[in-house]
Amino acid sequence: MKVVLASGNAGKLREFSQLFDSHFSDRHIQLVPQSELGVTDADETGLSFVENAILKARHASQITGLPALADDSGIEIDALNGQPGIYSARYASMNEAGQGDADNNALVLEKLLDVPAAERTARFQCVLVYMRHANDPTPQIFQGSWEGRILTAPAGEGGFGYDPLFWVESEQCAAAELEKSRKNAISHRGQAIQQLLARWRP
């Protein structure tokens, strides 16, 4: 059984592939990135993680005719009233093109420059949506949340996105310093995947 992963994010693709390979190797479920099937990114016009994940899954399923799994995720920073939220991947490029993770991180640090440690609380959110077909009236939705706080400078070389800024209290390190297997076990995406594993109806 083939399932199209409705994402063009290389970091997400790596994490999903690792998780699926370890959990579904005996179920003959193949996760295929949308890029391999000629699917372009959907327009993320929703105002919530759930809306955008549904838009992405439906778009990929419409084009390929396959069931689709989509992820929409991001970081909510309390001192910024929940920003960047659904705009996490393009936070620094809202008005300029060609900016990426380093620019996003730099903008967050700039906005939090005078914010004390106790007020730098944040969380990663991940919403997974599985649609059996493009007109699926009951998409399956799974959500994970990962609490932490924002550091004053990046730490670690692993992960992607805001991982170098995200301090994980239980591990006493930044998300970018975690081993892949440990991150997959405790992260927002890992939590959502665990829900999918327990309740998914392919």
Q: What would your notes on this structure say?
A:
α4 packs across α5. The chain has a 7-stranded mixed beta sheet with strand order 2-1-3-4-5-6-7. It contains 5 helices and 7 strands, in the order βαβαβαββββαα. A hairpin with a 4-residue loop joins β6 and β7. The chain is globular, with a radius of gyration of 17 Å. With 202 residues, it is of the alpha/beta class.
- Major sheet details: 7 strands, mixed
Low-confidence stretches: none
User: SSE order in H/E notation?
Assistant: EHEHEHEEEEHH
Whole-number radius of gyration? 17 Å
What oligomerization state is this entry in?
Answer: single chain
Walk across the major sheet and give the strand order.
2-1-3-4-5-6-7
> How many H/I helices?
5
Q: Which range best describes the helical content: under 10%, 10-25%, 25-40%, 40-55%, 55-70% or over 70%?
A: 25-40%
From the spread of the alpha carbons, the general shape counts as: globular
What is the average per-residue confidence, as pLDDT, rounded to a whole number? 91
Q: Give the N-terminus to C-terminus distance in angstroms.
A: 9 Å
What is the number of beta strands?
7
Structure class = alpha/beta
> How much β-strand is present in the residues?
15-25%
